[in-house]
Design goal:
The chain has helices spanning about 40-45, 55-65, 70-85, and strands at about 5-15, 25-35, 70, 90-100, 105-115. It has about 120 residues and is of the alpha+beta class. It has a single domain (about 5-115), classed as GTP Cyclohydrolase I, domain 2 (2-Layer Sandwich), CATH 3.30.1130. Keywords: Folate biosynthesis, Lyase.
Length: about 120
């Protein structure tokens, strides 16, 4: 299985259970691992035969700006669903991090894995 990975992708969204968290969008960090639907791009060297990660990141940022989530789990699941359904990935692992949200905790996050690894 061939996997594209993106680490430290920053996006803004309304996230959190507490009122003070939902006053303004917060920056979240995404680490993404995305299985390619095929190995075709390895042979053709053609961008059309793979997942265009620039388009993916742009799309995710727009999605998250328009969405509101209470939990990181729901946010991560939504991202995984978008990657699988709109970018035809058979498998993905999505980690969502809220940096600096807790006192003396550098990063809080969740990881979800969706689909089948081949």
């Amino acid at each position: 299985m061939d996997i594209i990975f993106l680490q430290g992708v920053r996006a803004r969204t309304l996230i959190g259970c507490y009122d003070w968290e939902r006053v303004a969008p917060q920056v979240v960090e995404l680490d993404l691992e995305i299985a390619l639907p095929s190995t075709r791009a390895c042979h053709t060297d053609n961008l059309n035969d793979t997942i265009n990660y620039d388009q993916l990141v742009t799309h995710l940022r727009k999605e998250l700006e328009a969405q509101h989530f209470l939990l990181l789990e729901a946010l991560a699941d939504h991202i995984a669903k978008v990657i699988r359904e709109q970018f035809c990935a058979p498998w993905t692992r999505v980690s969502v991090i809220k940096p600096g949200i807790l006192h003396e905790v550098t990063r809080v996050g969740v990881t979800v894995e969706r689909g089948q690894r081949s």
